[in-house]
Amino acid sequence: MKYISRFLLWVMGWKTMESPVPEPKCIILGVPHTSSWDFVISFLYYNSMGRTASVMVKKSLFWGPLGPIVRAMGGVPVDRKKGASTTLQLIEEFRTREILHLAIAPEGTRKPTQRWKAGFHTIAKAAGIPVYLGYFDWGKKEVGRGEKIELTDDPVADLKRIRQWYKDKGVVGKHPRNFTPGNDLE
Length: 186
Prior knowledge:
Number of strands: 11
Radius of gyration: 16 Å
Shape: globular
Order of helices and strands: HEEHEHEHEEHEEEEHE
Number of domains: 1
Strand content: 15-25%
Distance between the termini: 37 Å
């Protein structure tokens, strides 16, 4: 899968910018999230490095023959009907697994949004894991895990720094009008 993923990225004109995260557990932010293709690019990127990044997938997709496929692609089952308990479910995943690189889109949607979700901050602080500023820049066709950001106990200030990093980097989404670095916290 590693070499197939490298080949597919090359054919599509993408460059990989950094090696995978060295820690066994982390959260990798996926920004900007403006298209379902973002998953494809990030999946190929991580697989091209011989690794698997996980993503949250609704629990109902893990039944029958689809279950093993979703798991093999890094799916982590979550019951989204329980609201805030999604955060608790993911904290538990980090506690029970030896290796987990979880990709999260803080925008929470592929549509334009001014409010980014801070659940990743809660999860990272509770699980004691680092956060990386992953990106897929459709303008430059570059994909990478970005740098590690040190979180404080102030999620609002941290999110402001994170948004500024993406703004300064100048990343462009597949649908540029759908990406705003945001100015508020949810």
